[in-house]
Amino acid sequence: MNYQGDRTTGFASPAGDNIEGTIDLMSTALDLRQPSRYPVRVEGDALLGRAIRHGDILVVDSAVAPRAGVVVVASVGDELRVCELTQRAGEWWLRSSSPQASPVQVDDDTDVAIWAVATGLVRTDV
Predict the structure, then answer these.
(1) Does pLDDT of 120 surpass 80?
(2) pLDDT tens for each residue of 83-110
(3) 46: which of 3, 12, 76, 90 is 20 to 30 A away, CA to CA?
(4) How many CA atoms lie within 13 A of 41 on its CB side?
(5) Contact (Cβ atoms closer than 8 angstroms) between residue 91 and residue 84
(6) What is the pTM of this model?
(7) Residue 66: CB atoms within 10 Å
(8) Residue 58 class from Cβ within 10 Å (0-12 exposed, 13-18 middle, 19+ buried)?
(9) Using an 8 Å Cβ cutoff, are 48 and 56 in contact?
(10) How far apart are the first and last CA of the chain?
(11) Residue 47's CB: how many other CB atoms inside 10 A?
C-alpha cells in the first residue's frame, strides 16, 4: 500500500491555517540583479549599537530615499562611511554608535553625499 498524504484518517491539524509560505530571500532582500542594489562589506565596529559588525555584508540600494533612522553609505570628504542618518531640530546628521566619533552635519557647507540606504544584512560569521 502506498501512502498518500491527502488520504489520511483522523482530524486535520488546527495549525493548518497558520502555515506560512516559503521565504524567498532572493526576491526580497538579496536580489542583486537590480542595478541600484549592491553589496558593501562593513569594516570596523562603528555601528555595533545597530548590531552591524565588522565583516558583515550590507545590501544597499541607491534608489531608496534616505530618511531618519536608516543606515546609509555616505561619502564624507574622500572617505566612505556606513552611518545612521538622524534628524535633530530640523538638521540632518550622520552618526555612528561609537561614543568617540563625533556626528557629521549634512548640509550645503559640508562635503557629504549620501550614496545608498541599507536594505538588508548578511552575516557569514555566526
Answers:
(1) yes
(2) 999 999 889 999 987 777 788 889 888 8
(3) 90
(4) 4
(5) no
(6) 0.75
(7) 16
(8) buried
(9) no
(10) 45
(11) 23
Q: What is the DSSP string of the chain?
A: ----TTS--S---GGGGG------TTTTT--TTSTTEEEEE--SSTTGGGT--TT-EEEEETTSPP-TT-EEEEEETTEEEEEEEEEETTEEEEE-S-TTSPPEEESTTS-EEEEEEEEEEE-S--
Q: Which residues of 75-97 are buried (b: 16+ CB within 10 A; e: fewer)?
A: eeeeeebbbbbeeeeeebbbbbe
Rounded Cα gap, residues 125 and 108, in angstroms: 39
| Alpha-carbon span 37 to 13, nearest angstrom | 42
Cell numbers of 54, please?
565588522
C-alpha cell at 21: 509560505
The answer to whether 92 touches 104, Cβ cutoff 8 Å, is: no
Burial of 106 (0-12, 13-18, 19+ CB in 10 A): buried
The cell numbers describing 18, all together, are 497558520
Q: What is the maximal distance between C-alpha atoms in the chain?
A: 79
